[in-house]
Amino acid sequence: MGKKAAEVLEISYDELEEYLHVHHSVYMRVGTKVYYITDANESYWRAQDTSIRNHKNHFVDCSDLVPTVGEFLSLRFVNGHTIEEVFDQATFYASISSR
After folding, report:
1. Helix (H) or strand (E) holding 11
2. Which end of the chain has fewer surrounding CB within 10 Å, N or C?
3. DSSP letters spanning 50-97
4. Cα distance between residue 52 and residue 20, in whole Å
5. Domains of the chain: total
6. From its phi and psi, is residue 56 left (phi > 0), alpha (psi between -120 and 50) or beta?
7. What distance in Å separates the CA atoms of residue 25 and residue 93, rounded to the nearest whole number?
8. For the whole model, what pTM was predicted?
9. Rounded to whole angstroms, how far apart are CA atoms 18 and 36?
10. SS3 of 99, please?
11. How far from chain centre, in Å, is Cα 94?
């Protein structure tokens, strides 16, 4: 998992799917919640709640694991809403490699 960049990522909803294909992850803040949106081995997509860690100190999944970005974008994991429905209230940040 990468670290959240300090600078806000200027991106439109229409650009988000391609951004995820290229960069594989992004952080999204909606209100006080921060989600880590990422792929799992470049095959499946999920959102993780950054406020909860498991026994391995990894973020905990808060969405279903689905095979395509398109399917992921239609998931209602943000208090029953999709990313598109909350996009205007969301702030995005790049995920920076810690290597």
Report:
1. none
2. C
3. EEEE-TTSPEEE-S--BSSHHHHHT---BTTB-HHHHGGGEEEEEEEP
4. 23
5. 1
6. alpha
7. 10
8. 0.94
9. 17
10. coil
11. 10
Give the tokens for residue 94: 């790049």
Burial of 83 (0-12, 13-18, 19+ CB in 10 A): buried
Q: Say how many CA atoms lie within 13 Å of 91 toward its Cβ.
A: 10
**Residue numbers of the domain that contains 83:** 3-96
Q: By the 8 A CB rule, do 92 and 4 touch?
A: no
Residue 81 corresponds to which tokens in the numbers above? 């809403």
What distance in Å separates the CA atoms of residue 92 and residue 56, rounded to the nearest whole number?
Answer: 25
User: Both tokens of residue 68?
Assistant: 């395509």
